[in-house]
Specification:
With 249 residues, this protein is an alpha+beta fold. The chain has four helices and eleven strands, in the order αββαβββαββαββββ.
């Protein structure tokens, strides 16, 4: 009786071992098939690449305007003409070339008399004539100085106003192309890091999307869905972002 029991026990262990081995084979096959399905399904990894560069403006634009007021049109225009000659003489003293100056036509505003309650009457009370001029060029220091010192013309009896200068970088398109390449490399590095952490490898490019460029003053955190374009600062920061999808091997 004891031998028969041992025999049954041995057969049970043998059968159990066979079932276990079969289960391991099946589970291995299922796992391999799952991996193949993942590869065939074209899984991708999507990352953002970033690049930033500082640039210095190489072109500036400045605008100033002056006006004359008077009860009669002709004397008022003569006053404006004298002021224009004085402004041009001042620009010549600042060593601004004539080719860098653009003078606008005269804008005329007719002023009508009004009653005590503000109702306009059909009677001309005077005229306001205004003329503006633009100065532009690559001399950034000159543009900045003109915007600051031009209001000194007021001492000469000229009603002069100065706008804030605008600063640009003329090679910005070349910079954008270079930065897109830098951002793309950064995206690849990020993708490889993420893939290696999961035991995978980065495959081919599946898609790429260029984000808008943010051109801001240095240290600015301003962003816009349409992109920022700072014209107030001489020193600027250009930021580029790309979104890229890679296959996973």
């Amino acid at each position: 009786m004891e031998q028969r029991s041992d025999s049954k026990h041995g057969l049970f262990l043998l059968g159990f071992g066979a079932i276990l081995a079969l289960g391991l084979v099946i589970s291995t096959w299922i796992g391999a098939a799952a991996v193949e399905r993942i590869k065939r399904s074209g899984q991708t990894i999507t990352v953002k690449g970033y690049a930033e560069r500082r640039i210095t403006s190489d072109y500036g634009v400045w605008r100033g305007r002056f006006s004359a007021r008077g009860a009669e049109l002709v004397p008022t225009y003569e006053k404006l003409s004298r002021d224009l000659r004085a402004v041009l003489a001042w620009l010549d003293e600042q060593r601004v070339g004539k080719g860098a100056i653009e003078v606008s036509p005269v804008a005329t505003e007719v002023q009508y008399a009004r009653t005590a309650d503000g109702t306009q009457l059909n009677r001309v009370e005077g005229y306001v004539l205004t003329q503006s001029l633009d100065v532009e060029g690559a001399d950034i220091a000159l543009i900045a100085r003109l915007s600051k010192e031009s209001t000194g013309l007021i001492r000469d009896g000229i009603a002069f106003e100065s706008d804030a200068p605008q600063y640009f970088y003329t090679k910005i398109n070349d910079v954008k192309i270079e930065m897109l390449a830098e951002a793309t490399k950064d995206a690849r590095v990020r993708a490889e890091q993420l893939a290696s952490n999961s035991g995978s490898r980065v495959g081919g490019l599946h898609g790429a999307e260029q984000g808008v460029f943010q051109i801001t003053s240095v240290h600015s955190t301003d962003v816009s869905g349409y992109g920022e374009l700072d014209t107030d600062s001489i020193f600027k920061s250009v930021k580029a972002i790309v979104t890229i999808s890679y296959g996973i091997d």
